[in-house]
Each structure stands twice: as structure tokens, then as C-alpha cells.
Amino acid sequence: PKFIEVKYLLAEAYIKDRRFLAASKILEDIVVIVPDDFWSYFLLGIMREKEGRTIDAIEYYQKSLRLSPEEELVRIVLENLVLEQTDLQNLIRDELAVYHLERGFQLQERNMLTNSHSSFRRAVLLNPRNVDSRIALAGYFLKSGFPLRYLDQMLVIKDLGIVHSDVEQAIESLRAKNQSSIATSLGINQFNIIFLVQTYRRFVQHI
After folding, report:
1. Summary mean pLDDT of the chain
2. I need a labelling partner for 69 at 20 to 30 A (CA). Which of 88, 168, 173, 174 fits?
3. What angle is formed at CA 107 by the lines to CA 113 and CA 120, rounded to 5 degrees?
């Protein structure tokens, strides 16, 4: 309805002027009329974030995203706030990471490898300790012809102290079966492969 659009504009103006009480009243009135209005919850989230009320902001963004799961703007704003203001143990990180992990697999099935890479990387960024996300990202590197980056992700999992049989098998398999071919293609001694990976890992930490 047109009158709701007008209320949106007024609420946004109040938020911009930091008149949060007035903005909150308008948005809460809209929610009473249209309970599934994702945009009102999103604006309430923005307002709470500006007030420094991170927990409330996250809750409003989550409500908005549940009402409109395909709304990328809401997802990006929520994820950025979570990345900036929550610790690595926060359960919401895992919830958000799973979305990108599943999306990555869907894109992979459609042979959209570059896009799947972005999704897997986002999943790892949101939850660095999630083994499934790291294995998926490692798998992308292996399929794309980057065995050193594949090995790097597997070694990260090991460095995190996470015991995972698939990871151990993958590391040993690559060392035993592929080091010789990697060394040949790179023109280096196969016993320097691990040193090369370690050098690469130190390098990427600074870029």
C-alpha cells in the first residue's frame, strides 16, 4: 500500500537524523499491520546497529532474512555485522556458513566453479573452524588444478587441532601419490613440496 511506502520514507529519514524513537514507532506500527514485512525488520535492525545494540540488530536482521531468504542485501548486512561483532564460537556463524556451503555445492553441480569458489570462501570466512566448508574449498582448488592450495586447506584443518580421518587420508594421499608429479611439473625436488606449501602459506598471510 502507498501509505506504507510513505511510512518507510519517513522512518528512514528519522533513522538518518538519529531520531530513533520516532522511527521505531513508525516501523512497529507497520509490523502490526503487515507482520511479514521484511523491510520493516531490516530498518529496525539498521536502527539498532546505529544505536550500538548489536544483539538486537542481529535479531531483527535474522527476522528480516527469515521472511525473505533470497534478499541478498539483508544477508550481506547481517553477515558483515556478525563478522565484525561476534566471536568465532557464536552459533549464528555456523547457521550463516551453512547457507553458503549448500549454495556452493549447488553452483558446483551446475558447473559454475568460480561462483562456487566464492560461496565456499564465504562459508570459511564466517566459520573458519567448520571442517565441511574447508574440505569443500579444498576440493574446489584440487578440481581447478591448484594442489598446493588444496594441501594448504587440509593442513589448516590439522593446525586447528581438528581430528578428521578424511583430512589425514587426503594429506597422506597427496604426499604419497602426487608429490612426484607436482615436483615434475614445477621442476623442483619432490622433497621440497611441503617447504613450498609452508612458504606459500606465509606469503598469503600478508596479502
Report:
1. 85
2. 88
3. 70
